[in-house]
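Lesson 9: reading folded outputs for more than one chain in a single document. The general rule is that every protein is listed as its sequence immediately followed by its structure tokens, and records are never interleaved. Here is the first one.
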Amino acid sequence: MIKKILIANRGEIAVRILRACKDLGIQTVAVHSTADADAMHVRLADESVCVGPPQPRESYLNIPAVISAACISGADAVHPGFGFLSENSTFAYMVEEHGLTFIGPKPEHIAMMGDKIMAKKTAARLGLRTIPGSDGSLSTLDKATKLADEIGYPLLIKAAAGGGGRGMKMAMTKDAFSEAYESVKREAGIAFGNDNVYLEKYLANPRHIEFQIIADKFGNVIHLGERDCSLQRRNQKIWEETPSSVLSSEFREDFGYKVAQAIGELQYLGVGTLEFLYEGGELYFIEMNTRIQVEHPISEMITGVDIVREQILAAAGNELSLSQYDVKFRGHAIECRINAENSETFLPSSGVIKNYHCPGGPGIRVDSALYDGCRVPPYYDSLIAKLIVHANDREQCLARMRRALREYVIEGIDTLIPLHLKLVENSDVIAGDYDIHFLERMLDPASHA
């Protein structure tokens, strides 16, 4: 059994992992930059190691520093959380080469799914429907233009190594294609060190739906249903909920089984999320995230399964503690991402928290690393908290979310709480009538007229 885990992350996800470790009786090691010396995850961990200055590349993304911290602290496993090094196959290989357990999938599966072209090919081989598009990367504008004419406009140009909403542009017409193609190729080379791009047919009004899976080394795979992540801004998720209002229970059961079976054939290990676009009664695979997701708490709320606990136990070589038959879906859950951003301009906000009060009551959960007097630094992702609400049905869940948002106090910085208050009062959101373009239409109706 794993005895000590180094958590190679920060913020709320580091605290979330730390709590799962405590429940399992596992010792914890926090890593931190100099900017995070007084952070919540550092305060709660059994021990901590500073891995560098504030800039991520010199601290949280510094592979030698993180692995050195694991070795000198006597950790026997590393949990990467999400973001930073979580989907870096080189990091996973190096963790294993140093005799440590990587709490995540096999490095080859991280590499496979990190290449979006390879991921699509793998999904198709496993029997999952994919969006019409190129079979591989397109190295020249001439080849790309010819294929674009065959696929038809509008279409998306996407970076093979992209993800998290980055590395994609839409071309509405042939005249706009060459500029969009060159832009994505250039940006991909800079951001990901890989300028390979591919094309996909643009779906007009899809929902973004994902399935959560957990697998052990014995070939057991379960799914925890779907999450609807369609409320997005610039391809970044803002609001997630489960179950989705567009899938029937029969569809969920059948498709969840299909996804679990596909992952079983892949001999995958640990947790993962398969993401799809839903339109016209069909789910089209777009990518797989080989890590814990930001929005995993809503799946935990409706199933009662501690996903991080199962992830740690699977990495330790244990069999899953439950079968698909044991997974029961109860009620409805919604997560609002509370980002340190202005709710109108979306400019990042940093500073000292002067007054902090969490909402409470039945069905309310807050995942955060904030406390009175803590500093939100300007160097990292703007996600500072997640407000999660669970209730017997969607109507009650919305009512609880409305109450919880009004109770939530974070002073000293700007947050997205005002935006979520608008969403929870919006008649279309209340009716469950939205797609991936809804939020941008709501924020800028003139540009979508």
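And here is the second record, again sequence then tokens.
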Amino acid sequence: MRRCGDVQLAHLGEPQGREAGFARPVVVVTAQLALEQHPSVVHVVPLTSTIRGYRSEVTIEPDPENGLEVASAAQCQHIRAIAVGRLAVPIGNVGPQALTQIREILADLLDL
């Protein structure tokens, strides 16, 4: 079962402008209650190995739990809804601390 905070490879397609695209890891941020309903679309935040230090990004260091190979920035400013068919199997999970940081930034960005 998919879980909040899962890191999965996603095929985001050809980017336009500065949006995230191509095949890259993403963090699933859809609420666990919604994930338990096996939705056909989930909300994700793309990861990038280019760390810019933006306030809208959360830096995640690689560890055995998240499965990342390099330090990555969760690009909260690029949140998007994607079909679950774009996701590969989970490679790890960012854990509650990083997920909380991501969700706090999303709340600020979306004025929640």
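What the second record shows: Residues 104 and 112 are 9 Å apart (CA to CA).
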